[in-house]
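User: I'm curious what two different proteins look like when written out as structure tokens. Can you demonstrate?

Assistant: Sure. I'll show them one after the other, since each token string lines up with its own sequence. Here's the first protein:
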Amino acid sequence: MKILVLNSGSSSIKFKLYEMGSAEEGKVLASGLAERIGEATSTLKYKRHEPNGQETARSWNDPLPDHDTGLKMIIEALADPEAGVVASTDEIAAAGHRVVHGGEAFSAPTVVNDDVVAAIKQHIPLAPLHNPANLDGIRVARQLMPKASQVAVFDTAFHQTMPPEAYMYAMPYELYKEQGVRKYGFHGTSHKYVARQTARLAGVPYDQANLITAHLGNGASMAAIKNGRCIDTSLGMTPLAGLIMGTRTGDFDPAILFYLNRQTGMTLDEMDELVNKKSGLKGICGHNDLRDVHKEAEAGNERAKLALSMLAYRNKKFFGSYFAALGRLDAIAFTAGVGENDDWVRAASLADMDHLGIVVDPKRNEGRFSEPTLISADSSAVQVWVVPTDEEYEIARETFEVLS
């Protein structure tokens, strides 16, 4: 079964075409990115993945004024006589769409129909930057591939198993019932993929696995997983809460904003920009890319050193609190750009936790990892893994399962 995975953003469409033999067996036939849609410098980058592991790359610089044009060019590239991988789009059985927010309406991947589209539209206020672009991808795919099934896979779905004590805020209950104010969490597709892989690597049946997955990148989140089900996650109603991120505060005292408004006259829009785009690592030391922060720290920059210490300390607090919530912990998994590539962050985030049975082996932890790697010491009661995430494959897998 050929499944086209689409991640439609506000100005880009990321895609991968899979040949799925089963839910656990798939290979990439082609991948690429249409970017800067609506701009004069828009491009389409395309790769055909050869059976021998090699890649044939092509690119087009034709204007992409809208998502309709972008997806049409992607489909033409897939069927291109020279670089394509299908004779026609009729070979594509389904498109799996990443949708950021499904609210409480969706706890599993769902075949798209008009009612599903309407429900995704209803959740636009919860994800105003993402859901409209996701809907554009669905709309255009339905038009251009009328014979293919369309499946929506929601970033928030994995976290819908959280109990009320984890997802509710201590605010008037009417705000939850009338406005949907609650924790939803994000990065759910990544957390689900990594959790399944980690359970397998740790030798624990998934429905019995107690895990903490740490998706650490410019945006970051953790999830506490008990018996294969998410019971808590660090991101909240929005992607602002929890861990310190590249430009986002993570958890902080919200009354600071009232104080700033009274003292400086800062507006709502200015405060929004402050906590989402000017804070986090960038706010502390002027850099949001951890590679730059490390360089500055090594050069003696005290604020860069502070930013690193704050990041690791916040991570450690979440690891500890989720261990307490789980009661028993089989394994921890690091993933995403920072989790897979920054050995300092991994080591510092779990330092001095020997008394909890968590011991990272310095040698095993060294370097960057593109394959699952055990980094805990033999003496560690809790296994610690680096597990590279693959959200596109998880979307393809879930799409296959829905259609099967």
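Here's a second, unrelated protein for contrast:
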Amino acid sequence: MKAVLYVGHGTRVPEGSEQLKTFAEEAKKDIPYDIQETCFLELSKPDIMEGAARCVEKGADSIAVVPVLLLSAGHIKEDIPEELDKVKEAYPHVSIQYGAPFGLHTKMLDVLQQRLENKGWQKGQDAGILLVGRGSSDDKAITDFHDIASLLQKRTGVDKVDTAFLAAANPTFDEGLEKVAKSSTKNVYVLPYLLFTGLLMQEMQTKIEAADKTSEPSLYLCDYLGYDKQLIEVLRERTDETFHQPFLFEKSEENV
């Protein structure tokens, strides 16, 4: 029997974990598999091993592991596969297929534009955009992020979409704020490329409130991507694609 295991990042902020669970529960309604479980890579429970165990307890002999993550970086390439090695050791009779994150997708740009519009942005407005990512030491993830910024710039028609990162990459968020604070535009929209709330969102809010007191352009912090029907459509696509991926691990015939 086939199962789907959704893997979120995890956060120390309980609200963020609950948002991921709610998002996955909504997605399950549109994804036609009887066994669907949600787990986290770190900081939240259940972890990947516990999630896989729940799938097996319900009768799964094949698990499609779908990362509920934005870009392909260290978590996708190293951390999750390491945990799946442990799952395979514990359940050698189970086949595992491993999918891709949301990645570059038109619907991601649709949601970003909506988040801007929800804060009052309009085409033709004298405004700048600061796109803020979590950050990574992975070159491909940084390149993909800059590609998203470039596509967003073309879509919105602003002169430039500046970028900044909350960790592990440059420019830092502080540097990004300092740059846009010197902008000649009347308004700057700070746009988080984050799925759900957490400590990083709280940190951004605090810094923007402090910077806005001395900043000439008005700063507006947009909402994170969050629960959105369009993101559920992307997740459904990634889930379908995962079931067509080669097996990361095939079940051991000796243990069937």
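A detail about the second structure: The chain has a mean pLDDT of 90.
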